[in-house]
Amino acid sequence: MTDTDVTSESPPPEVPVAGSGAAIRAAAARIADPEQRVLERIEEMRKRKPRMRDDAITMSHGAGGKSSHTLITALFADVLSNPVLDQLGDQAVLPIPGVDNLGLAVTTDSFVVSPLFFPGGDIGELAINGTVNDLAVGGATPVGIAAAFILEEGLDVELLRKVVVSLRAAADRAGVSVVTGDTKVVPRGKADKLFITTTGVGIVELPQRSAMARVRAGDVVLVSGALGDHGATVMLARGDVDLEAESLRSDTMPLHGLTKALFDEDIDVHFMRDATRGGVATVLNEIAQGAGVAISMNEDSLPIHDVVRGVAEILGIEALYIANEGKLVAIVAEGDAERALQVMRSRPEGAEAAIIGTVLPEPEGMVFIETVFGGTRVVDMLQGDPLPRIC
Ligand code: MG
Known about the structure:
Blueprint: H1 3-9, H2 21-32, H3 34-47, H4 66-80, E1 92-96, E2 99-111, E3 117-118, E4 121-122, H5 123-136, E5 141-152, H6 157-174, E6 178-186, E7 194-205, E8 220-223, H7 229-237, H8 256-264, E9 269-274, H9 279-291, E10 294-298, H10 306-315, E11 328-332, H11 337-345, E12 354-360, E13 367-370, E14 376-378
Parallel strand pairs: 5-6, 10-13
Antiparallel strand pairs: 1-2, 2-7, 3-4, 5-7, 8-11, 8-12, 9-11, 10-12, 13-14
Helix pairs in contact: 5-6, 5-8
Bound molecules: magnesium ion.
């Protein structure tokens, strides 16, 4: 038997069935509206499962944007898949045997920021705040932190002590202790001075009040303060941007007090996420895709300091993509939005909080910005890595 024989036995190709009147009208409308056609095409592309196309890891896989997302979903979550991990939350929530109304929240984060010290903070403080915040945005109260240190041979001991003292102070501020840890040393040149990994454990009430699945059309989008201060500060401290900005400081801070205040005031918070790498633009894309909604932002309402706008312009990126280390995005029920804003603004962490947009039913997975000139444009996830080693 030849190949030809086999082929001849396969069923004939399916004949396309003519569409209904409505489908034809919709298709005609699409052809008439090229913008609609483009939007539909983007929506289609987004719904596809990402595939890892790179042969080697690039810096952009660590930037928190599109490439990181692909690496995580197409490699890590694909191989390690299980019902908890597959939710890709800021914190995993594990059951506590015999307890129905509480869960164990776990999160982990590595810190490779360069330089180790920058205006407003350092790697030790970041390592605590980053982990505390990943618990806080899920409504979890931190109960203990593990810290692992990778040290480069030759690292100055006084410098290391300074970092650990700062880490301790940050833990005290967040009301949590470092209860276990690990230390490894690698030869000179095999790491850059010091990397830290922190793991946080917390307790969360079930069902979780802050959950991506609770986001719905009509909700209001808030941010807890000015955007991009941390990333812009580190870029300046590293000398990557030739600009003097004495006033600019990292915004690294714990947000557990702010999130607790929102819950204590009974604000109907549907979801919160801290806007670290990839900035608010990336977080909003994650929410739009994860919850199957669209998000529209008002450019006019975005709280961004002038100096950060300046840094963004020099770097040729939008401030919306610059990392924060003490800012969260909150998606709140429409009726509670104004009250949520007041609660945030009544606290130092939220003094510059703002309502920046709304959740729309469609097009699914898309984030838009209404520009000050009256136009609308799509805001995608961060591409590439314009801001390496920012946290
Ligand atoms: Mg986070």
